[in-house]
Prior knowledge:
With 356 residues, the chain is α/β, with parallel strands linked by helices. It has 2 domains: 5-12 and 256-355, Alpha-Beta Complex (Aspartate Aminotransferase, domain 1), CATH 3.90.1150; 16-253, Aspartate Aminotransferase, domain 2. It has helices spanning 16-22, 32-49, 62-73, 85-96, 114-122, 144-152, 174-177, 203-210, 221-228, 239-255, 257-277, 304-315, 341-355, and strands at 5-6, 56-58, 77-82, 100-105, 128-132, 134-135, 140-141, 158-162, 181-185, 197-201, 293-297, 317-318, 330-334. α4 links the parallel β3 (77-82) and β4. The radius of gyration is 20 Å and the shape is globular. The relative contact order is 0.17. The mean pLDDT is 98. Bound molecules: pyridoxal-5'-phosphate.
Amino acid sequence: MSTPKLFIPGPIDVSQATYAAMSRPMIGHRGSEFEALYASTQPVLQQLAGTSRPVFLSTSSAWGVMEAALRNLTQKKVLTLCNGAFSDKWLDVAKKCGKEAEKIQMEWGQAIDPEQVRAKLAEGGFDTVTFIHNETSTGVMSDVSAIAKVVKSFPDVLLIVDCVSSFSAVPLAMDELGIDVLLAGVQKAMALPPGLTIFAISPAALERAKASKDRGYYFDFLEFEKNAASNNTPSTPAISLIFGLQDMLQTIAAEGLENRFARHRSNNKMIHDWAARHNFQHFAPEGFRSVSLSCFHTPTDFDQSAFIKTLKTKHNFLINGGYGKIKGITFRISNMGNETTSTMQELIDAMDDVLG
Ligand SMILES: *Cc1c(COP(=O)(O)O)cnc(C)c1O
């Protein structure tokens, strides 16, 4: 059988149109053709991020920019907001970068509590906060507006937001909310192969970076800012991925952003309705459930690994059996990217068939 169609929460299924766009002949990156390619990505990326700032293209997975944000911005101490595998890891990464760091630890499955953030920041000493909008390991989407409002009430604290699995699935408002770094890898809702991360930084973040030593070179925000002014990148970018990105952004613009967001909501609801029929319980509390993926408790009498395996061998669909310390006791289904009512229905019919 061919490679299974991916309904895991990243990387996700990539369309033939994207692969075709990516197979265009190579161009040099220090020429007008590349500059036009780069420039063409900006308007829709800016709309998706909700910013008038340039959107940088980093040839790395998301962690490259997640680490870079700390190296460029944290001079005193970072507060990491932790409620799952990715957000928890940010604390370790901060320490590995030699940064002073403290965390707020929520139980996995809970959203970040803005009032705890306010109380912790009021203790003083912090200059940066890391926050994951959509914790992909647990399917929890925290309230980015509420968190941003709290962080903005501390004028010297910069807010770094990982939108890896929410970018292009829900509206984002970087400038309006005062987010200082907004970043997203393209292998989640953007439905591109992995290897590229898009990010934008606020003027305050740029000023902070100027005063930061040890920013390194590859992820130096100043280098990105300087090169973006001429529609370029500091080092040789993954040009094929940018061809794919350009094509995807045209597709997104043609569909319309509101339609895209609505499609993610309705595809997500199809999975919620399916789960309700089979009495699968959500891992995330109501009101904080991701719209790009769903995470469910594995019932005690349910052979989850057999379910996932049969779904793959019989129907060629791949879902995920949980991540990090909740591997096995949860399972996750992605609905992000190019999925439609009919592709979601095919998955649902296949899952129903396996459940019998
Ligand atoms: C997938 C994911 C990451 C990890 O990104 P890499 O591309 O593996 O570096 C980080 N944050 C979130 C929320 C994710 O879903």
